[in-house]
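Ops channel
N.P.: pipeline sanity check, posting one input/output pair.
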């Protein structure tokens, strides 16, 4: 970014989570509506005002019926019936007649009349001692918001799938399902008040290659829809109303970055091999079969992590065996003979389904998540494992289980896999009898029993995003404690080493598929610790390859030996930076 801010620029600093620079109009999501003005109207305008109100009521009724239909199909008739109360508000003649009277007698606009009358009803209801009636106050306010939106021509919430023009999305937070919906053609970038580098939303942004900055504290309260901004996802800055000088300087930065990108692209068909001849498997993480294109386009050796839960988000129904089979088969066929590691469902944590009853938990990351759900919801697990097995006939597929915390879970999952294989044999459906099975190592307990787990798998994949949060007791989503989330913490370095040693003793390969794998500064440390494979967002593969091809494994091993003795995360990080900045300086220029 430019050395000094220019006058007229107003900049906000946050956590950079997805590199790239964009500029454009801001769209603020989830904001409270503009104040409702009271307009005095002429007699001649009153008929039109009544028509406007009636149109808004009809439109609102259609909207509610549509939501009710979706909820009833997705969640059940009982949940859908909640909206009956909303429809009743719209049909309440006493309310509507009173609004009409206010419009005509006071000669005011429909928004003001509806808001005043409905709010008076809601206030009265919320003061009543009866729980049922108090609930009706909430219904009344929900419906009022919809009617007012329609009267004011505001979208209920911008439809992220069908944005009308290119924009930078600003929001308090974006859930993984919001992010998954983003219409990439029109989302230039996004910035949020909260969040961290390893939240799934940040991971999605990298995979979609959308510049993103999180942890901007109160940005959603400080900017307005329609303002112009520049977002720098590499340095974690949002500049509101950038001056001409700033735009010019960023223009120069974009040109220099394009040259660096070109240099990285030159390596696409080169292998990830160190200067002293050590071949590293460098794979990509994907969320959908269509991402296979990006895997090839970025010169990866295959897929080290296919996060299948994204197939389940933003849908009205759970995808069944057939639908999943098509998706896994598509990825396998597109990348054949390259390997594709499919991870079974990792729901829970910050990934929830609208159509599945998931309990509200106090500690969702320690709760009903990942393999724990799969082992209990057998139908879902069965459909997924059968789909993966069937697709294994079409390419080089492997399966791995997320969040294994002990041997029992791994054995249970493997036993079910065998059961489903037997079913397929009986049904004469082909699959790869030798499909490899792996376990994610992302809990401290899995590290400590890695020697036992290694007897039952062909590979481990270190999920460092979770391993760090569980080992250091630092919520990966919480920007307030982001400074404590330290991948180079001595405990993490040692946990990785324990895993690698336990695995290699049994001939089990070790991959890292957490965000550490995509940080080129940490590449030498991971390779020095003996990790065999790195798997990261497709867009980060070229930078990691660039470092690998300038590194000697001997230097990496020295660095790891130092880190295993060192007592300070900051010192380990400083050594990692010293090494990587020395061998690949151009990669780390931020201007
Ligand atoms: C991890 O925890 O490092 C990982 C790769 O899994 P996820 O980020 O999907 O939890
Ligand atoms: Mg994980």
């Amino acid at each position: 970014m430019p050395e000094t801010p220019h006058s007229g620029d107003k900049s906000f600093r946050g956590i950079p989570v997805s590199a790239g620079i964009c500029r454009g109009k801001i769209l603020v999501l989830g904001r409270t509506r503009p104040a409702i003005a009271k307009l005095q109207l002429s007699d001649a305008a009153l008929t039109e005002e009544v028509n406007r109100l009636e149109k808004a009521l009809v439109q609102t009724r259609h909207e509610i019926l549509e939501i009710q239909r979706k909820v009833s199909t997705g969640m059940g008739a009982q949940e859908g019936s909640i909206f009956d109360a909303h429809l009743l508000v719209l049909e309440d003649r006493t309310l509507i007649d009173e609004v009409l009277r206010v419009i005509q007698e006071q000669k005011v606009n429909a928004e003001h009349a509806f808001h005043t009358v409905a709010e008076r009803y809601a206030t009265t209801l919320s003061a009543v001692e009866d729980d049922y009636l108090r609930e009706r106050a909430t219904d009344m306010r929900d419906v009022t918001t919809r009617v007012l939106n329609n009267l004011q021509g505001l979208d209920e919430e911008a439809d992220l799938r069908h944005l009308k023009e290119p924009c930078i999305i600003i929001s308090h937070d974006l859930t993984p399902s919001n992010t998954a919906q983003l219409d990439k053609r029109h989302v230039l970038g996004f910035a949020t008040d909260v969040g961290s580098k390893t939240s799934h939303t940040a991971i999605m942004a990298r995979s979609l290659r959308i510049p993103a900055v999180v942890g901007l504290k109160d940005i959603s309260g400080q900017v307005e829809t329609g303002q112009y901004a520049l977002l720098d996802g590499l340095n974690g800055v949002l500049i509101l109303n950038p001056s001409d000088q700033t735009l010019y300087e960023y223009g120069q930065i974009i040109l220099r970055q394009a040259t660096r990108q070109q240099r990285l692209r030159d390596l696409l068909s080169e292998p990830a091999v160190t200067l002293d001849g050590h071949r590293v498997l460098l794979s990509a993480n994907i969320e959908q079969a269509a991402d296979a294109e990006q895997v090839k386009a970025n010169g990866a050796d295959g897929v080290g992590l296919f996060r299948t839960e994204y197939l389940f988000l933003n849908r009205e129904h759970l995808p069944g065996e057939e639908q999943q089979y098509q998706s896994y088969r598509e990825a396998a066929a597109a990348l054949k003979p390259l390997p594709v590691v499919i991870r079974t469902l990792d729901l829970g944590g910050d990934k929830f389904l609208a159509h599945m009853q998931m309990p509200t938990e106090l500690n969702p990351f320690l709760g009903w998540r990942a393999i724990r759900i799969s082992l209990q919801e057998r139908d879902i697990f069965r459909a997924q494992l059968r789909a993966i097995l069937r697709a294994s006939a079409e390419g080089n597929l492997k399966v791995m289980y997320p969040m294994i915390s002990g041997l029992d879970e791994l054995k249970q999952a493997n036993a079910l896999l065998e059961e489903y294989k037997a079913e397929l044999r009986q049904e004469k459906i082909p699959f790869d009898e030798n499909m490899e099975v792996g376990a994610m190592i992302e809990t401290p307990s899995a590290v400590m029993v890695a020697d036992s787990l290694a007897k039952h798998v062909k590979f481990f994949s270190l999920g460092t995003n979770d391993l760090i949060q569980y080992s250091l007791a630092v919520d990966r989503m919480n920007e307030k404690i982001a400074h404590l989330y330290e991948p180079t913490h001595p405990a993490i370095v040692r946990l990785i080493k324990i895993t690698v040693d336990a695995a290699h003793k049994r001939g089990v390969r070790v991959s890292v598929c957490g965000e550490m794998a995509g940080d080129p500064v940490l590449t030498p440390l991971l390779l020095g610790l003996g990790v065999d494979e790195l798997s990261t967002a497709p867009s980060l593969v070229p930078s990691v390859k660039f470092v690998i091809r300038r590194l000697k494994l001997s230097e990496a091993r020295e660095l790891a030996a130092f880190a295993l003795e060192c007592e300070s995360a900051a010192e380990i990080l400083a050594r990692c930076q010293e090494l990587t900045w020395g061998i690949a300086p151009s990669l780390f220029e931020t201007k």
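N.P.: looks fine end to end. Residues 267-588 form a domain with the TIM Barrel fold (CATH 3.20.20.60).
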